[in-house]
Amino acid sequence: MKRLAIIVNEQKKSAVAALERITAAIARQAQIVATLGTDHCSDLSKIDADAILVLGGDGSLLSAARRLGGRPIPLLGVNFGRLGFLASFTPQQFDRHLDDFIAGKLGVSHRLVIETSVLKSDAKTPRFAATALNDAVITAGHPFHMIELKISADSGDGEELESEGVRYFGDGVIVSTASGSTAYNVSAGGPILSPTVSAFCITPICPHSISFRPVVISSQCIVRITASGVNEGTTLFCDGQESTKLAAGEMVVIRKSPNTVLLIENPDAGEWRNLAEKLNWAHGPTYNADT
């Protein structure tokens, strides 16, 4: 019998309302080892479950993925939020696929995770470290003047792609995974990547020079971003959930994690269908019906 844990976003009334019905349906076929609210599941790294069902939205699933601490427990997200790229099942779709979920017949994808650390000048031990499934974002913050960053990357074996780094002025920068390419990255003008692509997007936020365009690099690269000139409120965010302020001279180091996040895929929501239905991707113009 499959052992399942359930995480419910208690801030979403529709998710809480559906919990009893979903729990009753699952309990007929599997053992529910824990039911947790998103505000109370600070550590999932020791949970004894074969899979975790997340009732909420993408934010709830991102939180659960981070709190797993690298453990390879598959996550299935039922969307009670607004968009649902990662939490890809609607409640109705989950009901239809419940038996296959319990039987382990649904596909599982391995999603790249990034590790982000912050080092003070000349320090070797990070003062801050976090993981992210979607992105690491540096924002200018209060008083919202432009900031100056130096951005460089190497191939992971010590060979510098840009030895001196690139000076960048603007409102911040986004380093996203393929999974996160449809989040803040695409809103800032970055490219959409297939979730299966092992790469990072580096996307500037309102660059001072329009020649600074988004780039895609291999996930084997290590990205280093030095805070050359920052504001009092300049902040690093990881998946929008863990954060730390940055001081001048500090360096943000972003690299691929050895761990991945396992997502149980919705057979009714293919990659291109998701883009078309959720972002209206590739929709044609609205023609006059009389012509």
What this model shows, in words?
The protein is of the alpha+beta class. The chain has 2 domains: 3-107 and 265-279, 3-Layer(aba) Sandwich (Rossmann fold), CATH 3.40.50.10330; 112-260, Probable inorganic polyphosphate/atp-NAD kinase, domain 2 (Tumour Suppressor Smad4, Sandwich). It has 5 helices and 16 strands. Strand 1 (3-8), helix 1 and strand 2 form a beta-alpha-beta unit. Helix 1 runs parallel beside helix 3. The termini are far apart. The mean pLDDT is 91.
Tally of helical segments = 5
Biggest sheet, strands in spatial order? 6-5-16-13-8-9
**Total beta strand runs:** 16
What about the largest sheet?
6 strands, antiparallel
Can you tell me the CATH superfamily of the largest domain?
A: Probable inorganic polyphosphate/atp-NAD kinase, domain 2
According to CATH, what is the topology of the largest domain?
Tumour Suppressor Smad4
Mean pLDDT: 91
CATH class (first level) name of the largest domain: Mainly Beta
In the CATH hierarchy, the architecture of the largest domain is Sandwich
Could you state the order of secondary-structure elements as H and E?
EHEEHEHEEEEEEHEEEEEEH
**Radius of gyration (Å):** 21 Å
Ranges where pLDDT stays below 50 over 5 or more residues in a row are none
What is the count of distinct domains?
Answer: 2
Short précis:
Helix content is 17%, strand content 36%.
Helix-strand blueprint:
Elements: E1 3-8, H1 13-27, E2 31-37, E3 51-56, H2 58-67, E4 75-79, H3 91-102, E5 108-119, E6 128-132, E7 135-139, E8 147-154, E9 166-170, E10 172-176, H4 184-187, E11 199-205, E12 215-218, E13 222-229, E14 235-238, E15 242-245, E16 251-264, H5 271-279
Parallel strand pairs: 1-2, 1-3, 3-4
Antiparallel strand pairs: 5-6, 5-16, 7-10, 7-14, 8-9, 8-13, 10-11, 11-12, 13-16, 14-15
